[in-house]
Design brief:
heterodimer, A: mainly beta, 4-stranded antiparallel β-sheet, B: 11 strands
């Protein structure tokens, strides 16, 4: 597709439910990032993939959060046993490798998935 | 580790007035710096980026920013505000040296209000 696509755009979950958020990056972008944006805050880094390899997951807030990108394209962020503090917008972004020829360092963002946990 | 600080969580200007949004960075080496804009219920859109070429960077919608190494600053300006500029603005930094983190690190954002 032309841009980063995320689904669902809106998700309401009851506390304790599991949720899965999907990200379809720009075709050819090997780098994929997940961010969490709480209301009124800047995006906070969660995890980073280069192709199918998860190179950095230092931002995942707990072991209830899990991300995968098995074929190096579409990625899924899964949150198990959701809690109210998980309510946020989850942003996905993709980019070309920063140090390769033509790499600009720019991240292209999707519109986000807004999760509300009741 | 790199970080950015945005001074002023809320800025109000009159339509037609100068817009100045402040950003200071902390990095051991000159990083890549970015300004993104976010409209309500939307993702982030790139306004402009500094990647060690020209220190004065021009972006979309009439915005520009100047990289000042001596002041570790990357302030965003626009000579004349338009009502459509009302949005949340985020400054971000990305490490470029080997071993540095590859993700963007964002500031806390500045909400710009444009008054008629």
């Amino acid at each position: 597709g032309a841009g980063v696509s995320q689904s669902p755009r809106y998700k309401v979950a009851k506390r304790g439910q599991d949720v899965a958020l999907r990200c379809d990056p720009i075709s050819g972008h090997v780098s994929l990032f997940w961010y969490q944006q709480a209301l009124g805050q800047g995006p906070e880094f969660l995890t980073y993939f280069q192709n199918e390899a998860q190179l950095d997951k230092s931002g995942l807030p707990s072991d209830r959060f899990f991300a995968e990108r098995p074929e190096g394209s579409v990625s899924t962020l899964k949150i198990q046993r959701t809690q109210q503090e998980d309510s946020a917008v989850y942003l996905c972004a993709s980019s070309t490798p920063i140090l390769t020829s033509g790499g600009t360092g720019e991240l292209f963002f999707g519109e986000g998935s807004r999760l509300t946990v009741l | 580790a790199q970080s950015v600080t945005q001074l002023g969580s809320h800025v109000s200007v009159s339509e037609g007035a100068l817009v100045l949004l402040r950003c200071n960075y902390s990095s051991s080496v000159p990083p890549y710096l970015f300004w993104y804009v976010q409209y309500p219920n939307q993702g982030l859109q790139l306004l402009l980026k500094y990647t060690s070429a020209a220190t004065l960077v021009k972006g979309i919608n009439g915005f520009e920013a100047e990289f000042k190494k001596s002041e570790t600053s990357f302030h965003l300006t626009k000579p004349s505000a338009h009502m459509s500029d009302a949005a949340e603005y985020f400054c971000a930094v990305r490490g470029v040296s080997s071993g540095s983190a590859r993700q963007l690190t964002f500031g806390s954002g500045t909400q710009l209000t444009v008054l008629p």
